[in-house]
Automatic annotation (TrEMBL):
Entry-linked InterPro entries: Pantoate_hydroxy_MeTrfase, Pyrv/PenolPyrv_kinase-like_dom, Pyrv_kinase-like_dom_sf
Cofactor: how bound: Binds 1 Mg(2+) ion per subunit.
Residues annotated for Mg(2+) binding in this entry: D45, D84, E116
Protein name per its UniProtKB record: 3-methyl-2-oxobutanoate hydroxymethyltransferase
Organism: Ethanoligenens harbinense (strain DSM 18485 / JCM 12961 / CGMCC 1.5033 / YUAN-3)
HAMAP family tied to this protein: PanB
Statement: the UniProt record of this protein carries the keyword Metal-binding: yes
Amino acid sequence: SRTVTTQSFLDAKQNRRKIAMLTAYDYAMAKIVDGSGIDAVLVGDSLGMVVQGHDSTLEVTMDDMAYHCACVARGLQHALLVCDMPFLSCHVGLEEAVRNAGRLVQQSKADAVKLEGGIGMADTVKAIVRAQIPVMGHIGLTPQSVRLIGGYKVQGKDEAKARGLIEDALALEDAGVFSIVLEAVPEGLAKIITEKVSVPTIGIGAGRYCDGQVLVVHDLLGMYDAFVPKFVKQYAHLGGLIAEAVSAYARDVREGRFPEQKHTFSAGESFLEKLY
Ligand code: KIV
Ligand code: NA
Protein backbone atom coordinates (compact mmCIF):
# COMPACT_ATOMS: atom_id res chain seq x y z
CA SER A 1 0.00 0.00 0.00
CA ARG A 2 1.07 3.57 -0.67
CA THR A 3 2.81 5.89 1.82
CA VAL A 4 0.30 8.75 1.67
CA THR A 5 -3.14 7.95 3.06
CA THR A 6 -6.38 9.86 3.48
CA GLN A 7 -5.32 10.22 7.14
CA SER A 8 -2.16 12.04 5.92
CA PHE A 9 -4.48 14.53 4.20
CA LEU A 10 -6.28 15.26 7.47
CA ASP A 11 -2.94 15.45 9.36
CA ALA A 12 -1.61 17.89 6.75
CA LYS A 13 -4.49 20.29 7.43
CA GLN A 14 -4.03 19.96 11.21
CA ASN A 15 -0.31 20.72 10.87
CA ARG A 16 -0.81 23.45 8.24
CA ARG A 17 1.28 21.52 5.75
CA LYS A 18 0.18 22.26 2.15
CA ILE A 19 -0.80 19.35 -0.08
CA ALA A 20 0.59 19.16 -3.64
CA MET A 21 -1.53 17.14 -6.07
CA LEU A 22 -1.18 16.61 -9.80
CA THR A 23 -2.95 14.59 -12.47
CA ALA A 24 -1.42 11.66 -14.39
CA TYR A 25 -2.96 9.31 -16.92
CA ASP A 26 -0.28 6.70 -17.69
CA TYR A 27 2.49 4.62 -16.11
CA ALA A 28 5.54 6.56 -17.32
CA MET A 29 4.27 9.94 -16.12
CA ALA A 30 2.92 8.48 -12.88
CA LYS A 31 6.36 7.05 -12.05
CA ILE A 32 8.12 10.39 -12.68
CA VAL A 33 5.52 12.37 -10.72
CA ASP A 34 5.60 9.89 -7.83
CA GLY A 35 9.40 9.96 -7.73
CA SER A 36 9.27 13.76 -7.40
CA GLY A 37 7.51 13.41 -4.05
CA ILE A 38 4.04 14.66 -4.95
CA ASP A 39 1.45 13.93 -2.20
CA ALA A 40 -1.41 12.73 -4.38
CA VAL A 41 -2.06 11.83 -8.00
CA LEU A 42 -5.45 12.33 -9.63
CA VAL A 43 -6.53 10.30 -12.61
CA GLY A 44 -8.82 13.11 -13.74
CA ASP A 45 -11.56 12.83 -16.31
CA SER A 46 -9.67 15.81 -17.80
CA LEU A 47 -8.08 12.95 -19.75
CA GLY A 48 -11.07 13.35 -22.09
CA MET A 49 -9.52 16.64 -23.16
CA VAL A 50 -5.74 16.29 -22.80
CA VAL A 51 -5.41 12.58 -23.73
CA GLN A 52 -8.44 11.85 -25.91
CA GLY A 53 -8.78 15.26 -27.59
CA HIS A 54 -12.47 15.86 -26.86
CA ASP A 55 -13.57 19.38 -26.01
CA SER A 56 -15.25 18.40 -22.75
CA THR A 57 -15.09 15.61 -20.14
CA LEU A 58 -18.57 14.30 -20.98
CA GLU A 59 -17.36 11.60 -23.39
CA VAL A 60 -15.22 9.81 -20.79
CA THR A 61 -16.50 6.38 -19.73
CA MET A 62 -16.01 4.10 -16.73
CA ASP A 63 -13.93 1.81 -18.96
CA ASP A 64 -11.62 4.74 -19.83
CA MET A 65 -11.17 5.66 -16.16
CA ALA A 66 -10.61 2.06 -15.09
CA TYR A 67 -7.95 1.58 -17.78
CA HIS A 68 -6.01 4.78 -17.09
CA CYS A 69 -6.24 4.35 -13.32
CA ALA A 70 -4.79 0.83 -13.54
CA CYS A 71 -1.89 2.15 -15.69
CA VAL A 72 -1.15 4.95 -13.19
CA ALA A 73 -1.44 2.59 -10.21
CA ARG A 74 1.46 0.50 -11.50
CA GLY A 75 3.68 3.61 -11.41
CA LEU A 76 2.91 4.77 -7.85
CA GLN A 77 4.58 3.79 -4.58
CA HIS A 78 4.25 6.95 -2.53
CA ALA A 79 1.39 9.19 -3.63
CA LEU A 80 -2.28 8.69 -2.78
CA LEU A 81 -4.14 7.64 -5.93
CA VAL A 82 -7.50 9.36 -6.47
CA CYS A 83 -9.63 8.45 -9.50
CA ASP A 84 -12.45 10.57 -10.92
CA MET A 85 -15.95 9.15 -11.24
CA PRO A 86 -16.84 10.05 -14.86
CA PHE A 87 -20.06 11.63 -16.19
CA LEU A 88 -23.19 9.64 -15.27
CA SER A 89 -21.26 6.99 -13.33
CA CYS A 90 -22.85 7.99 -10.02
CA HIS A 91 -26.24 9.44 -11.00
CA VAL A 92 -28.26 6.37 -11.96
CA GLY A 93 -28.86 5.06 -8.47
CA LEU A 94 -26.78 4.51 -5.37
CA GLU A 95 -26.14 0.87 -6.19
CA GLU A 96 -24.56 1.68 -9.53
CA ALA A 97 -22.51 4.47 -7.94
CA VAL A 98 -21.11 2.13 -5.28
CA ARG A 99 -20.36 -0.59 -7.87
CA ASN A 100 -18.54 1.89 -10.12
CA ALA A 101 -16.51 3.33 -7.24
CA GLY A 102 -15.74 -0.19 -6.06
CA ARG A 103 -14.49 -1.19 -9.50
CA LEU A 104 -11.93 1.67 -9.48
CA VAL A 105 -10.60 0.49 -6.11
CA GLN A 106 -10.81 -3.27 -6.59
CA GLN A 107 -9.78 -3.59 -10.25
CA SER A 108 -7.80 -0.38 -10.90
CA LYS A 109 -6.14 0.02 -7.47
CA ALA A 110 -7.37 3.54 -6.69
CA ASP A 111 -7.05 4.58 -3.03
CA ALA A 112 -10.04 6.92 -3.29
CA VAL A 113 -12.56 8.30 -5.78
CA LYS A 114 -13.57 11.87 -6.56
CA LEU A 115 -17.01 12.97 -7.67
CA GLU A 116 -18.45 16.32 -8.70
CA GLY A 117 -21.30 17.98 -6.83
CA GLY A 118 -22.40 19.31 -3.44
CA ILE A 119 -25.59 18.85 -1.41
CA GLY A 120 -27.21 16.97 -4.29
CA MET A 121 -24.52 14.30 -4.16
CA ALA A 122 -24.33 13.95 -0.36
CA ASP A 123 -26.38 10.72 -0.29
CA THR A 124 -24.16 9.22 -3.00
CA VAL A 125 -21.02 10.19 -1.08
CA LYS A 126 -22.48 8.56 2.04
CA ALA A 127 -23.27 5.34 0.17
CA ILE A 128 -19.75 5.08 -1.25
CA VAL A 129 -18.12 5.89 2.11
CA ARG A 130 -20.38 3.26 3.72
CA ALA A 131 -18.74 0.78 1.33
CA GLN A 132 -15.42 1.85 2.95
CA ILE A 133 -14.22 3.78 -0.11
CA PRO A 134 -12.74 7.22 0.65
CA VAL A 135 -14.36 10.05 -1.35
CA MET A 136 -12.96 13.43 -2.39
CA GLY A 137 -15.60 16.07 -3.19
CA HIS A 138 -15.40 18.61 -6.02
CA ILE A 139 -17.41 21.86 -6.07
CA GLY A 140 -17.31 25.26 -7.74
CA LEU A 141 -16.76 24.82 -11.45
CA THR A 142 -17.70 21.20 -12.10
CA PRO A 143 -16.85 20.50 -15.75
CA GLN A 144 -19.38 17.64 -16.03
CA SER A 145 -22.08 20.33 -15.57
CA VAL A 146 -20.85 22.39 -18.54
CA ARG A 147 -24.07 21.88 -20.56
CA LEU A 148 -26.17 23.08 -17.62
CA ILE A 149 -23.85 25.97 -16.63
CA GLY A 150 -23.33 26.99 -20.26
CA GLY A 151 -19.53 27.31 -20.20
CA TYR A 152 -16.43 27.17 -18.04
CA LYS A 153 -16.97 30.14 -15.71
CA VAL A 154 -15.85 31.25 -12.26
CA GLN A 155 -18.48 30.15 -9.69
CA GLY A 156 -19.80 31.76 -6.50
CA LYS A 157 -19.62 35.36 -7.69
CA ASP A 158 -22.69 36.66 -5.83
CA GLU A 159 -23.77 36.29 -2.20
CA ALA A 160 -26.45 33.66 -2.82
CA LYS A 161 -24.19 31.50 -4.97
CA ALA A 162 -21.32 31.89 -2.49
CA ARG A 163 -23.64 30.79 0.35
CA GLY A 164 -24.68 27.84 -1.79
CA LEU A 165 -21.06 26.73 -2.19
CA ILE A 166 -20.44 27.00 1.57
CA GLU A 167 -23.54 24.83 2.14
CA ASP A 168 -22.24 22.34 -0.45
CA ALA A 169 -18.86 22.10 1.30
CA LEU A 170 -20.48 21.58 4.71
CA ALA A 171 -22.85 18.94 3.31
CA LEU A 172 -19.90 17.06 1.77
CA GLU A 173 -17.95 17.21 5.02
CA ASP A 174 -21.00 15.88 6.85
CA ALA A 175 -21.37 13.10 4.27
CA GLY A 176 -17.83 11.94 5.05
CA VAL A 177 -15.47 13.21 2.32
CA PHE A 178 -11.79 13.31 3.32
CA SER A 179 -11.06 16.37 1.14
CA ILE A 180 -12.79 18.79 -1.26
CA VAL A 181 -11.56 20.20 -4.58
CA LEU A 182 -12.56 23.86 -5.09
CA GLU A 183 -12.38 24.76 -8.78
CA ALA A 184 -12.58 28.29 -10.19
CA VAL A 185 -13.97 30.18 -7.21
CA PRO A 186 -12.92 33.61 -5.92
CA GLU A 187 -9.95 33.49 -3.55
CA GLY A 188 -11.85 35.10 -0.67
CA LEU A 189 -14.66 32.53 -0.86
CA ALA A 190 -12.18 29.63 -1.03
CA LYS A 191 -10.55 31.03 2.12
CA ILE A 192 -13.89 31.08 3.98
CA ILE A 193 -14.74 27.53 2.90
CA THR A 194 -11.24 26.36 3.89
CA GLU A 195 -11.72 27.81 7.37
CA LYS A 196 -15.25 26.39 7.78
CA VAL A 197 -14.49 22.73 6.97
CA SER A 198 -12.20 20.40 8.92
CA VAL A 199 -11.14 18.44 5.82
CA PRO A 200 -8.46 19.86 3.49
CA THR A 201 -9.54 21.92 0.49
CA ILE A 202 -7.57 21.40 -2.72
CA GLY A 203 -7.74 24.41 -5.00
CA ILE A 204 -7.50 24.82 -8.75
CA GLY A 205 -8.16 28.41 -9.71
CA ALA A 206 -9.23 28.99 -6.10
CA GLY A 207 -6.37 31.15 -4.85
CA ARG A 208 -3.71 31.01 -2.19
CA TYR A 209 -5.59 29.98 0.96
CA CYS A 210 -6.64 26.42 0.14
CA ASP A 211 -4.98 23.59 2.06
CA GLY A 212 -3.50 22.22 -1.16
CA GLN A 213 -3.37 22.71 -4.92
CA VAL A 214 -4.01 20.50 -7.95
CA LEU A 215 -3.09 21.04 -11.60
CA VAL A 216 -3.44 19.07 -14.81
CA VAL A 217 0.05 17.72 -15.58
CA HIS A 218 -0.15 18.71 -19.27
CA ASP A 219 -0.85 22.30 -18.19
CA LEU A 220 2.03 22.37 -15.69
CA LEU A 221 4.46 20.99 -18.28
CA GLY A 222 3.25 23.18 -21.14
CA MET A 223 2.12 20.39 -23.43
CA TYR A 224 -1.52 21.35 -23.99
CA ASP A 225 -2.30 24.78 -25.36
CA ALA A 226 -5.79 24.31 -26.83
CA PHE A 227 -6.81 26.41 -23.83
CA VAL A 228 -4.60 27.78 -21.01
CA PRO A 229 -6.73 29.05 -18.11
CA LYS A 230 -5.59 32.05 -16.02
CA PHE A 231 -4.93 29.79 -13.00
CA VAL A 232 -2.36 27.65 -14.81
CA LYS A 233 1.35 28.13 -14.23
CA GLN A 234 3.49 26.50 -16.89
CA TYR A 235 6.64 25.24 -15.14
CA ALA A 236 8.07 24.00 -18.44
CA HIS A 237 7.32 24.26 -22.14
CA LEU A 238 7.63 20.60 -23.06
CA GLY A 239 5.39 21.02 -26.12
CA GLY A 240 8.11 23.14 -27.72
CA LEU A 241 10.92 20.82 -26.57
CA ILE A 242 9.10 17.77 -27.95
CA ALA A 243 8.53 19.49 -31.29
CA GLU A 244 12.26 20.39 -31.51
CA ALA A 245 13.33 16.83 -30.67
CA VAL A 246 10.92 15.30 -33.20
CA SER A 247 11.99 17.61 -36.02
CA ALA A 248 15.69 16.93 -35.27
CA TYR A 249 14.93 13.19 -35.49
CA ALA A 250 13.03 13.55 -38.77
CA ARG A 251 15.88 15.67 -40.23
CA ASP A 252 18.50 13.09 -39.14
CA VAL A 253 16.52 10.22 -40.71
CA ARG A 254 16.03 12.08 -43.98
CA GLU A 255 19.67 13.16 -44.14
CA GLY A 256 21.13 9.77 -43.12
CA ARG A 257 22.55 10.87 -39.75
CA PHE A 258 20.40 8.44 -37.78
CA PRO A 259 20.93 5.60 -37.04
CA GLU A 260 24.70 5.53 -36.50
CA GLN A 261 26.79 2.40 -36.18
CA LYS A 262 26.43 2.45 -32.37
CA HIS A 263 22.67 2.04 -32.76
CA THR A 264 22.92 -1.13 -34.88
CA PHE A 265 23.25 -4.91 -34.31
CA SER A 266 25.82 -7.11 -36.09
CA ALA A 267 25.81 -10.86 -36.80
CA GLY A 268 29.36 -12.00 -37.72
CA GLU A 269 29.73 -10.45 -41.13
CA SER A 270 31.51 -13.52 -42.72
CA PHE A 271 28.37 -15.58 -43.41
CA LEU A 272 26.40 -12.57 -44.55
CA GLU A 273 28.75 -12.27 -47.59
CA LYS A 274 27.44 -15.64 -48.85
CA LEU A 275 23.93 -14.29 -48.93
CA TYR A 276 24.56 -11.71 -51.68
O1 KIV B 1 -10.21 16.04 -14.10
C1 KIV B 1 -9.39 16.73 -13.49
O2 KIV B 1 -8.21 16.85 -13.85
C2 KIV B 1 -9.86 17.41 -12.26
C3 KIV B 1 -8.94 18.39 -11.60
C4 KIV B 1 -8.62 19.53 -12.49
C5 KIV B 1 -9.45 18.83 -10.28
O3 KIV B 1 -10.94 17.15 -11.83
NA1 NA C 1 -12.30 15.93 -13.15
